[in-house]
């Protein structure tokens, strides 16, 4: 797998935007457009509670690390993990446990991503969790088979199995992110049910784009004809 250099790294949190809508990802991460709606405000408040670095917890067999910096050279992504739980193991389970600084024994990492609302019908939240797990695997030299999504509305953890299909989808999304970043390309709007949930509808204008696409396509074709005639 290709390893990215430091200047190529993108925000890991953006993979959720890419899974939701690649135009949304480009508007936020290439054009630097952002708008807050109720969903984003509530989500930020929930993350603020999870990301307080002064609220790390230590119990006899559990170490809870909040706001943990993570990086994946394979995915070319860097970011912050909301919560990583380290569960102590009596023995070293090869490929699953690691050492922690100033801690005795062996520890098994489990990533937990905090989200507002309820579980979604697609895997946009799961791919972000998967990217975090893949970054932790690189950093700690372990294999992580599962993690959790915690939803603010249900106050419940949802177990996510990090299987091959989810990992492959995560890799494909990260590749697409880097492709768009290299090209500086913002994809055209694609109207869908997800548009009503997007905080960038005013900037994206998917309905206007679709109504005017025939004109846009005509002008694009005319420009190509003129260039070909030169």
From TrEMBL:
It comes from the Bacteria. Keywords: Antiviral defense, Exonuclease, Hydrolase, Iron, Iron-sulfur, Manganese, Metal-binding, Nuclease. GO terms for biological process: defense response to virus. Its cofactor is iron-sulfur cluster; Mg(2+); Mn(2+); [4Fe-4S] cluster. Mg(2+) or Mn(2+) required for ssDNA cleavage activity. One of its GO terms (molecular function) is exonuclease activity. Signal peptide: none annotated. Residues 14-205 form the DUF83 domain. Pfam families: Cas_Cas4 (PF01930). CRISPR (clustered regularly interspaced short palindromic repeat) is an adaptive immune system that provides protection against mobile genetic elements (viruses, transposable elements and conjugative plasmids). CRISPR clusters contain sequences complementary to antecedent mobile elements and target invading nucleic acids. CRISPR clusters are transcribed and processed into CRISPR RNA (crRNA). This is CRISPR-associated exonuclease Cas4. The gene is cas4.
């Amino acid at each position: 797998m290709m390893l990215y250099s430091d200047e190529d790294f993108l925000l890991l949190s953006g993979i959720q935007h890419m899974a939701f809508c690649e135009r949304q990802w480009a508007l936020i991460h290439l054009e630097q457009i952002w708008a807050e709606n109720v969903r984003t405000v509530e989500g930020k408040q929930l993350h603020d509670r999870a990301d307080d670095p002064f609220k790390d917890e230590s119990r006899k067999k559990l170490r809870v690390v909040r706001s943990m910096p993570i990086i994946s050279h394979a995915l070319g992504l860097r970011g912050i993990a909301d919560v990583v739980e380290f569960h102590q193991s009596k023995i070293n389970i090869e490929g699953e446990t690691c050492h922690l600084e100033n801690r005795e024994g062996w520890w098994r990492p489990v990533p937990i991503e905090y989200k507002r609302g309820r579980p979604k019908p697609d895997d946009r939240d799961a791919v972000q969790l998967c990217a975090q797990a893949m970054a932790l695997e690189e950093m700690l030299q372990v294999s992580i088979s599962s993690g959790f999504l915690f939803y603010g509305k249900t106050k419940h953890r949802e177990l996510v199995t990090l299987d091959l299909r989810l990992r492959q989808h995560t890799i494909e999304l990260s590749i697409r992110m880097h492709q768009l970043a290299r090209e500086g390309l913002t994809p055209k709007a694609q109207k869908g049910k997800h548009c009503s949930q997007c905080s960038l509808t005013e900037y994206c204008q998917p309905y206007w784009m679709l109504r005017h696409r025939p004109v846009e396509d005509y002008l694009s074709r005319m420009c190509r004809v003129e260039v070909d005639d030169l």
